[in-house]
Fold this sequence. Notes:
The strands form 7 sheets. The chain has a 7-stranded mixed beta sheet with strand order 3-9-10-16-13-12-11. Strands 20-19-21-22-23 form a 5-stranded mixed beta sheet, sandwiched between helices. Strands 5-4-6 form a 3-stranded antiparallel beta sheet. It is an alpha+beta fold. The mean pLDDT is 95. It folds into 2 domains: 5-69 and 149-324, 2-Layer Sandwich (BirA Bifunctional Protein, domain 2), CATH 3.30.930.10; 344-437, Rossmann fold (3-Layer(aba) Sandwich), CATH 3.40.50. The chain contains 14 helices and 23 strands. Helices cover 33% and strands 29% of the residues. A hairpin with a 2-residue loop joins strand 12 and strand 13. Bound molecules: adenosine-5'-triphosphate.
Amino acid sequence: MDNNLLEKVVSLCKRRGFIFPGSEIYGGLRGTWDYGPLGTELKFNLKQSWWEYMVQDRENVFGMNASIMMNPKVWEASGHVASFTDPLVECKTCHERFRADKAEDIKEHEQTHAKKKEKVEWTEPKQFNILVEAKLGVVEGEKTTVFLRGEITQGVHVNFKNVLDSMRPKIPFGIAQIGKAFRNEITPRNFIFRSREFEQMEMQTYVKPNEKEAMGMFNEMKDLRMKWYLDLGIKKSKLRFREHAPDERAHYAQAAWDIEYETPWGWDEAEGIHHRGDWDLSRHSEFSGQDLSYFDSETNERFIPWVIETSGGVDRALLFFLLNAYYEEKDRLILKLHPKLAPYKAAVFPLLANKPQLIEKARRILKDLKRTGLNVAWDDRGNIGKRYYSQDEIGTPYCITVDFQTLEDDTVTVRDRDTAKQERLPIGELSKFIQKVLLLDN
Ligand code: ATP
């Protein structure tokens, strides 16, 4: 494992416009990151790929996009006000605070002091609630405290009845959502792996309330989620499942497995698959006084469904795709991103930047490719070799060069990012050629 891999990826992200430290010109804001031009495209592609895979390509799955700010009662009912906590310890010497359950962080801090021949004494762990508060209202002193959602899950459960009434879904069915969540993390770290503002992508699948149905769906979801990472190019050896120990599970979870990625700092969580039982709907029924049951017209039974959840971090997945894609070759640096994720699907170059005929032809190709829905870049700076390297670094799968032969026979050179091999293709086949590698076979 390359120990500097994380730093290399962070530096590439800054240099090539993927991700910048949040509020950088003001000295930053801990635990926040801003996505730049290419990072925004990458993130958009990642979310779109998840949405197609989990929602549009499957049946009986519906989308939601709920508010980030919700009635504070939601968070009482969901248990977050009482127990969305992490154990916090403080170093008595320097007063820095850490999560007591993150052994690596604790060890690292003790080693820092040990170098100065100091021994660390820790305070007793105390439970620290990580919900982020905000104030709403227009009269000072009468403002209401609301929480920025700590997870996106609740926006789905509180709309369960709305989706039932409007879509009339048949059980089992899923409701999916992608969106921002906020946590007052004690120790944001490892770049975008743990930040205080991040995005989640989640699927809540409602099933009949029995173990056979629930575990069947649980296993199906485990496989499907693992397959998504693999289909998008993560190496198999870098992924694994890990079952949570009973004392590790969240307050609602009856069964919980993580998909983990082997990061430069060890195996760590990419996403969780949780059996939430009837926790959410029962609690929201109780706290709201609304009937959140489902009527099964086939069996004439009324019940509160159980929930199987898959909850992944958009930013975490994005980091893992970057780490997985980073390659250094003798004379070039390549991001071997899956073409579906790559910010640009191709780049178009006129061989020479001072030949109007070449430029005109190349611009036409660029425009036509864009019209077929492909995000394609233009580059006419420097020599061709430099342009190739520049596109390799940002993961562009194909470079298309328009040269003098193009003007005669309408063919172009297409260079493959990973093999650096070139072939000659008719202009009319370009779009199909590129579209082909964007398909996922799920
Ligand atoms: P951790 O133990 O790493 O804090 P968690 O088990 O609390 O994570 P969940 O509450 O299950 O995480 O959240 C689901 C997913 O949301 C996680 O698997 C992760 O991908 C993402 N996520 C959670 N917290 C953060 C964060 N602070 N920054 C970025 N992504 C996060």
